[in-house]
Amino acid sequence: MIIEEVHAKTILSKSKVFDYTVNPYTGCEHACTYCYARFMKRFTGHKEAWGEFVDVKTNAPILLQHETKNKRVGKVWISGICDPYQPVEKRYELTKKCLEILLERRWPATIQTKSPLVFRDMELLRKFNEIEVGLTITTADENIREIFEPNSPSIEQRIEALQKLHSVGIKTFAMIAPLLPKAEGLVAQLRGKVDYVLIDKMNYHYAGWVYKRYKLEYAMNSKFFTHKKIELPNAFERGGIPHQLLF
């Protein structure tokens, strides 16, 4: 893993999902095969494969301190193109420092991660007037998870993090995206641990070779998604879990 400390020019960017996004890192150690953020290599000049480098924006908190003074208050997505709690966060704590600034400024935030490391900042998160934490969980099957997300935390660890955060009153959600085979098993596992669930197809073209290697091509065709559009909402409805289908 090549970790390089860099100085960013800006940190608070406009987002099509929320008002703003903050990405303390470029690159991600989780190296998920389907990750849409791979497109960032076009701009960074990295020759390494996705998942083999992380640029650490060491001046991110300083930039955020300045930029939040000069921009209209809005909801901040942490993060749009990296996992804010990937392993390198243990050392640098940039996400934590950025959250401390947003709390001080009273800016709302939405955190999205695959890592139980987010629980480290539980006491900080509880001080926000408006915050939610989402854990991306794409399947209920560990074998499938290991195929597509070999360096990411286990499903059990992610669900445990949701449960702990939810139990102390922090708003939580699960993001089932991209929708992988055997996601239907998540209904029972998420009950009582999340406020809502989001389900989306997202991008699959990066991981086409993975589907072919493991003979999972059926999970990319329209028949699969047509079935899931009926099966999953019905299952979450029966489980009493609010949900939204995004495709």
Describe the structure.
It contains 10 helices and 11 strands. The protein has 2 domains: 113 residues, no CATH class; 112 residues. 34% of the residues lie in helices and 18% in strands. The two termini are 35 Å apart.
Number of structurally distinct domains? 2
Order of helix and strand elements from N to C terminus: EEEEHEHEHHEHEHHEHEHHE
Task: Count every helix, treating DSSP H or I runs of 4 or more residues as helices.
Answer: 10
- Report the span from N to C terminus: 35 Å
From the alpha carbons, calculate the radius of gyration and give it in angstroms.
18 Å
* Main structural class: alpha/beta
| Uncertain regions spanning at least 5 consecutive residues | none
What is the overall pLDDT average?
94
The major beta sheet can be summarized as: 8 strands, mixed
